[in-house]
């Protein structure tokens, strides 16, 4: 048996990792909730954001945390343009076409990164990954603690955007009834692009929080998207609150799984949960039946 303080430390670190996972899942569930499609390019876009963070740090000396705001704006514009001028027009209003377009976009982006950066694994190489805070008997990772705070603040801002602004009301209207929203003067194409842009902005923020303690290569985003899909299914497809709660829960499960089973098997519990949720409650914790 492990000492209680070791288990408590694993739970706390799992919560902090889970907040960043939730941020990745937020973009995925938001796009699904409004566009009603699964974005297969999500992982490749996260990888692009991580390489952007790495480039800003190596070439311009910009700290990843200072890069959060500019990269979020850049990736919002990038996501808006992708949806408005590539994904939307090429899908011709068919969901199955959108799935194929995002899958093709994922392949294109991944191969462009392979051509540009090869398959080498890179990291910031900074000592910040080893910064810890002593909270009584527990050692808490400082970068993960910062990531926890920023992820929760981003989720709160996203909730405020959706609930207290005209843009948020338009997003919710299009998600509920696209034709009705169009009849009252809302442009669904613009709202789709804004939603996709917000999802990409969430990925940019997540990349800034991940890179101080993680590495990047052209395929690294796929691993995070597998976890994000589990979170979205666990919390309920299209649910913002579900993505946040699911992310925190999955982070704790991964951390305790790594403690009990070893680091290489830490994610085994995540995918067992994925299967159980599909069997027992397919709508997720916060999902509604169609």
TrEMBL record:
It is found in: Cell membrane. GO terms for cellular component: plasma membrane. GO terms for biological process: amino acid transport. The chain crosses the membrane at residues 12-34, 40-60, 67-87, 99-117, 145-162, 191-211, 223-250, 256-280. It comes from the Bacteria. GO terms for molecular function: transmembrane transporter activity. It holds the Pfam family BPD_transp_2. It is a multi-pass membrane protein. Keywords: Amino-acid transport, Cell membrane, Membrane, Transmembrane, Transmembrane helix, Transport. Belongs to the binding-protein-dependent transport system permease family. LivHM subfamily. PANTHER family: AMINO ACID ABC TRANSPORTER PERMEASE PROTEIN, BRANCHED-CHAIN AMINO ACID TRANSPORT SYSTEM PERMEASE PROTEIN LIVH. This is Branched-chain amino acid ABC transporter permease. It comes from Teichococcus wenyumeiae.
